[in-house]
Structure formats: C-alpha cells, structure tokens
C-alpha cells in the first residue's frame, strides 16, 4: 500500500504540473474506482442473464440456475460437467414438481407461521415447564437491561452537567454511582447471553427428542431412506438443521424482545425530557416513526429472498455431507474398483455447487447491506440530530429573553448540556435497537428456511409412519394394470396385514399379494401361498426376481399394495420372524450385546438367560474361541475384528438366542464352511425353527421340504420337493 500511495502521489504531481489540480485528479480516481467496482458487480448478473435466456426458451417456465461447477475455464470437459449438472437439476426439478405439487417454497407466508407454530408447541409443550421458566428469567433480564441503559444515560448526562458547572463534589458522587451500576449491568449482559444459550439448548433437546420418537416410530428410519424420496439426508436435518433452527429461535427472541422494550421505554424517557424542556413531545417521535417506516418499507421491497437462498444452501451442504458419508461407508469397494477419480469428481461438483450458492448469497447481501447501512448510519443519524435539536430550538425553557443573571445563564447551559447528552445516549441506544430490529428481518427470513426444512422433515416422518410415501416411479400410472392405486400422485397401500392370535394356526399366508418395489416396479403381480410351521421353504430364482423383496414384505418393511398377509402375532420373548442378511449388522457394544441384539441386558436377565447359555450358543456356531479370548463385557469394534464368516455365524447365534418361529435366511451362510453350515441348519430345525432360505448352495436343499421358484418375469411356482431332487442348473449361475 505504501508503494502504491507513493506511485499515486507522483502521478498527481505530474498531473499538477500539466495543469490538472489534485482535487480534479482525486475525483477522476474515485470515479474510476466506482465504475470498476460497478462493472465487477454487474458483470456476473449480465452473464447469468445471457446464459439462462436460451434455456428459458427451451424449457418454458422451468428456471435452471446451473452456476459454475468448476473453476473458470473454457475447455470442453468443464462445459460437459456444467451441462450434465444442469440435466440433473432439471430432472430433480421435474420430479419435485410431479411429486410435491402442494409444497410451498420457504418464505414469510402463512405456511411459515403454521410450521413455526407447530415447532413452538414442541419446544414449549406446556404453560408451566422448564422452557417457560427460562423465558421468564430471560425476559426479566432483558427488561432490567433496558432500565439500566436508561439509568446509565441519565448518569452520563448528569456527569456532563456537573463538569460544565465545575462542581467537583457532585461530579465525584455521580461518578461513583456510575461505577457502582457497572457491576449489575455487566452481570445482566452476561446472564442474557447465558440464558440465550440455555434456551437454544433446551429448544434443541425438545426437538431432538420429538424427532427421534418419530424417526424410530414404525421403523421410520428405514422407510424414510428406502421407501420415500423426499429426504435425502435425514442425518443432516436431525443434527445440523435442528441445531441451527433452535439457536436462531433463541437468538431471535432476544433480538426482537429487547429492542422492543428499548424503544418503548426510551421513547417514554425522551418524551419526559422534552416535557422538561417545555417543547412539543410529539414532533420528534412522529418524525422518527415516519422516517423509520419509510426506510423499512423500502428495505422490505428490495430485500432478496434469503429464506429460499438459505434453504438451498442447507440442501447443498447436506448433499455434500451425504457424499462424504457414502464414500466412508463404501471405502473398501471404491478402493477395490479404483473409483477415486469418479468420487472426487462428484465431491468437487457438490462442493462447487455449494460454493456457487454461497457466492450468490454474498452477492445478494452486498448491495442490500450497503443500502441498509446507508439508511441506518446516515439517514437515521440525521433524523436523530433533528430530534435532539428540536426541544432546544423550539422549547421555551431557558429562553435568552428570560435570563436575569450569569448564574441562571450557567444553570440553563448546564441543563441543556445534560439534556443533550442524555438524549444523545438514549438515541444511540434507540438507533441500535431499531438497527437490530431491521437486521432481525433477515434473520426471520433465514429462519423461514430452517423452519421449512425441520417442519418438512417432521411432516415426512408423520406421513411415512402412516404408510404414505412419495418416491419416483419407474412406470406411469396407466402401466400399473390396476395393481397399484394412486391418490394425489402417491401410491396407496390397500393391502392388509392380519395378525392371528389362534395358537393352533401359526402359519404365514399370502393371498393375492403383489411384490412391488419402493419405486413401484411390479416384480410379481400376485403371490398366493401358505407356509405352515415345519414347512422349510427354499426360494430360488434369478437376480432381481423378488426373493429378497418377499422377505421385506413378510417382515413388514415394504407396504402391501393389494391382497392380504396373515402372520402370527408376535408374543413376548418369542418373535414370529427373524431376518438374517448376507452382511450382518454388528452393533456398538460388548460381545454379549452382539449375541442378544436387539435385546438389552435387562431383557436377557428377564428371560433368565445366563452367560453359560451364551457360551453354549457360541459353541453351536463354532465361535467359542471368541468367548475364551474376550469376556462377554469387553467392548470392541466387532465390525472390524470379526471376519465375514464370523459375522455370519454371530448372526446365527442371535437366531439361536431368540428362537423365533420362522427364520428368514438370505444367503446368510455364504462365507461359512459347509460342515459348520450343515450343523447350523440341523440345530435350527431341532429347535423347531421353520426355515425360509434364499441360497445358491446345492448342499442346503436337503434341509428343506418345499420350494418356491421365481422365473424373473413375474411368474412363480410353489411345490413340494422330492427327496432326491437336485438343484437345477439355471439357478447355479
């Protein structure tokens, strides 16, 4: 900067030698800087307008804001990435318009007030609760802070008054009072921040607990991510969005309540001071209200839609986190494939989309904050000067014509000085309060975006818990052949699940039940069969024919769009069905927790199951060496410690622990040796567990009595197996 300043000075001297004054040179330099800044700001808008105009013609009313996906460049690969991303956004927009026609964009509207009211009822459930206590104390501190501000302003006016009078005694006394009031004032300030943080945490706790109840209600954690397509990253909404929303609400309460108290009480104090000066008490407030109302109206008209901008930023940030979590989850597969280039490209695209949105918000804020600061710093300051001067210029107190002697003159001057100082301090506090109120408008608009996401998440949780899903379909409605009925663009699950309580009828019966995937792909139009206890069923067929889908329907994970499913009602301590996938889930906890999952230690004690029985179960699946190496209470990362075959045998140990009526086995022994596998199936049958198995191993046929064959084209056959039947060749590949 020093070198640049010297260089400018030299140019100015040369210009002055040529007849150009420094004043003219400065004007030219400032004008050039302003023009350059204007060109820099307006150029991106012009480019976006020119680039979007041909797309508007092609897509009609659809508006696409692609933005720059990569750093500026002109090569063909960058353009291809931009076009690909634009196509993705267009498809997402069409899907959103098709499936969420009733959805309202975030903003200050009736829907925002409705959603905010719903969330407030969750955060403050009762009139007398912990949150209302915090709010009461917080409100008391805010009011106390306002009175303290007025009192401090009066003390400062008195200090100036006694300085003008040269009254050392009174000055010292007021100064001591000023220092004394500083202790409670600083304590109240600290308490306001402390209570705001406590409020935010209390609101977040209420919302998190309510959200968790909805998230785990009726297996919503599965339905939201697999059956419904409206929430891509529930983890981000359950953590980041709720946290930001709770903090925004708590901060907004302080930002709105305290300025309102300040304006009300400071206005009364100013009117009282004007009355002492024998001036009109309505002229100043009327002028200030008119100016503030006019500037607020202008700012409201030109304010960008920060709610939509913030909501979109949160969407893109959540998607970026989703990609990161997906890479972490599938790191081994990606490393085997060597897919780091593709994954890095997707990460860069997601990050660049987030950067574009943030830059868009920064650009929108640039000129808006400039206009806002102009009104608040200069227009309002000028109005304040007029308000302060009016009582002195128009008041009759202390008029020069009424002056008698020098002592009264000094008294009038000191009184005016005291009024001017007090009024100035009060006006500064009032201007700060109004500025906070005006700034709160942006916070309210931003809050609308977070309210939209949090309330939308809870609405989706409520709907999915009731079996209402919204997901992209692979076929149109007229191609369903009447199997699936749609209502308001959403498939309606008209099938029924009937639980039987008859101890003599423990069979599983499907009557005209279609096998339909979450995206409404009909795999099997109608399936009818009856599985009695002891009917060990082998399920075969090519990939994608509906084998695993049948297990999801039997377990109640997928909705039934037609027909009836009759299953025995689960009784305490003995589940009806127990599903074991090919890749078992290892929970966080000890070795005992892995065996008894999803039971807890309390459930285990209630069932009177001892550790010796757990050792016997581990011996049945050839895992007794783990119990010998580690105790049942040792907590380890079992997902990484156990091998693939050991994980599958641990899942079988859970089966032997729970002893259900039916076992749904989906390639659950593919990594287990044949001898251990044979022993496991023999033990399961001896426990009275009916086996429903999906497998490609011919050695397991002998443990089953019936076979269900899918051909992959929608047809199926259910029959009894011959004793010497061998697996067909088409099911080996």
UniProtKB/TrEMBL annotation:
Residues 508-730 form the ABC transporter domain. CDD domains: ABCD_peroxisomal_ALDP. The keyword Disulfide bond does not apply. It is a multi-pass membrane protein. Gene3D superfamilies: ABC transporter type 1, transmembrane domain (1.20.1560.10), P-loop containing nucleotide triphosphate hydrolases (3.40.50.300). It is found in: Peroxisome membrane. Keywords: ATP-binding, Membrane, Nucleotide-binding, Transmembrane, Transmembrane helix, Transport. This is GL18159. Residues 139-376 form the ABC transmembrane type-1 domain. GO terms for biological process: fatty acid beta-oxidation; long-chain fatty acid import into peroxisome; long-chain fatty acid metabolic process; peroxisome organization; very long-chain fatty acid catabolic process. The chain crosses the membrane at residues 128-154, 174-195. Signal peptide: none annotated. One of its GO terms (molecular function) is ATP binding. The keyword Transport applies. GO terms for cellular component: peroxisomal membrane. It comes from the Eukaryota. InterPro entries: AAA+_ATPase (IPR003593), ABC1_TM_dom (IPR011527), ABC1_TM_sf (IPR036640), ABC_transporter-like_ATP-bd (IPR003439), ABC_transporter-like_CS (IPR017871), ABC_transporter_sub-D (IPR050835), P-loop_NTPase (IPR027417). Belongs to the ABC transporter superfamily. ABCD family. Peroxisomal fatty acyl CoA transporter (TC 3.A.1.203) subfamily. Its main location: membrane. It comes from Drosophila persimilis (Fruit fly).
């Amino acid at each position: 900067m020093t070198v640049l300043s010297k260089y400018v000075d030299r140019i100015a001297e040369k210009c002055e030698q040529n007849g150009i004054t420094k004043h003219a040179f400065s004007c030219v330099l400032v004008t050039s800087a302003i023009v350059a800044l204007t060109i820099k700001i307006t150029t991106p808008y012009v480019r976006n307008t020119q680039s979007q105009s041909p797309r508007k013609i092609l897509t009609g009313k659809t508006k696409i804001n692609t933005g720059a996906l990569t750093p500026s460049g002109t090569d063909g690969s960058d353009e291809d990435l931009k076009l690909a991303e634009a196509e993705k956004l267009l498809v997402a927009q069409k899907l959103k318009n098709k499936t969420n026609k009733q959805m309202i964009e975030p903003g200050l509207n009736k829907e925002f007030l409705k959603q905010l009211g719903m969330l407030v009822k969750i955060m403050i459930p009762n009139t007398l609760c912990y949150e209302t206590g915090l709010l009461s104390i917080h409100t008391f501190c805010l009011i106390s802070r306002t009175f303290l501000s007025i009192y401090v302003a009066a003390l400062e006016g008195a200090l100036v008054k006694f300085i003008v009078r040269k009254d050392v005694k009174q000055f010292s006394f007021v100064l001591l009072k000023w220092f004394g009031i500083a202790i409670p004032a600083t304590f109240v300030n600290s308490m306001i921040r402390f209570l705001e943080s406590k409020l935010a945490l209390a609101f977040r706790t209420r919302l998190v607990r309510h959200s968790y109840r909805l998230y785990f209600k009726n297996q919503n954690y599965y339905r939201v991510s697999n059956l419904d397509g409206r929430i891509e990253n529930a983890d981000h909404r359950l953590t980041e969005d709720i946290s930001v929303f709770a903090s925004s609400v708590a901060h907004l309460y302080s930002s709105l309540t305290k300025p309102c108290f300040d304006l009300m009480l400071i206005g009364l104090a100013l009117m009282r001071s004007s009355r002492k000066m024998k001036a009109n008490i309505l002229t100043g407030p009327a002028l200030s209200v008119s100016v503030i109302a006019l500037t607020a109206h202008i700012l409201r008209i030109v304010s960008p839609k920060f709610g939509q901008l913030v909501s979109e930023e949160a969407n893109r940030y959540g998607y970026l986190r989703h990609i990161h979590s997906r890479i972490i989850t599938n790191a081994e597969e990606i490393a085997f494939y060597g897919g780091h280039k593709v994954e890095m490209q997707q990460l860069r695209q997601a990050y660049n989309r987030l950067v574009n949105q943030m830059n868009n918000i920064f650009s929108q804020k640039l000129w808006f904050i400039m206009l806002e600061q102009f009104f608040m710093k200069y227009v309002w300051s000028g109005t304040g000067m007029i308000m302060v001067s009016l009582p002195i210029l128009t008041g009759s107190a202390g008029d020069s014509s009424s002056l008698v002697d020098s002592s009264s003159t000094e008294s009038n001057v000191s009184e005016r000085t005291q009024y001017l100082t007090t009024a100035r301090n009060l006006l500064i506090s009032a201007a700060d309060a109004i500025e906070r109120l005006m700034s709160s408008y942006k916070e309210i608009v931003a809050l609308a975006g977070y309210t939209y996401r949090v309330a939308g998440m809870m609405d989706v949780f409520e709907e999915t818990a009731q079996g209402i899903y919204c997901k992209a379909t692979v076929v149109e409605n007229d191609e369903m052949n009447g199997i699936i009925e749609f209502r308001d663009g959403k498939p309606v699950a008209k099938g029924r699940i009937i639980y039987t309580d008859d101890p003599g009828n423990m069979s599983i019966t499907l009557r005209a039940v279609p096998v339909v995937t979450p995206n409404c792909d009909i795999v099997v139009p109608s399936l009818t069969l009856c599985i009695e206890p002891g009917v060990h069923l082998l399920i075969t067929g090519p990939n994608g024919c509906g084998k695993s889908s049948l297990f999801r329907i039997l377990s109640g994970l997928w909705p039934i769009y037609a027909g009836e499913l009759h299953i025995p009602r689960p009784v305490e301590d003995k589940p009806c069905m127990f599903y074991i996938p090919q890749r078992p889930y290892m929970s966080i906890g000890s070795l005992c927790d892995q065996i008894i999952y999803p039971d807890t230690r309390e459930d285990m004690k209630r069932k009177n199951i001892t550790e010796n029985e757990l050792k016997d179960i581990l011996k049945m699946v050839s895992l007794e060496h783990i119990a010998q190496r580690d105790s049942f209470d040792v907590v380890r990362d079992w997902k990484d410690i156990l091998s693939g075959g050991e994980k599958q045998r641990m899942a079988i140990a859970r089966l032997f622990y729970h002893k259900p009526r039916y076992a749904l086995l989906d390639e659950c022994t593919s990594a287990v040796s044949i001898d251990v596998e044979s022993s496991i199936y023999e033990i399961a049958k001896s426990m009275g567990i009916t086996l429903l198995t999906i497998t490609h191993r011919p050695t397991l046929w002998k443990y089953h009595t019936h076979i269900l064959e899918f051909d992959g084209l929608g047809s199926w056959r259910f029959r009894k197996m011959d004793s010497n039947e061998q697996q067909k060749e088409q099911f080996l590949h």
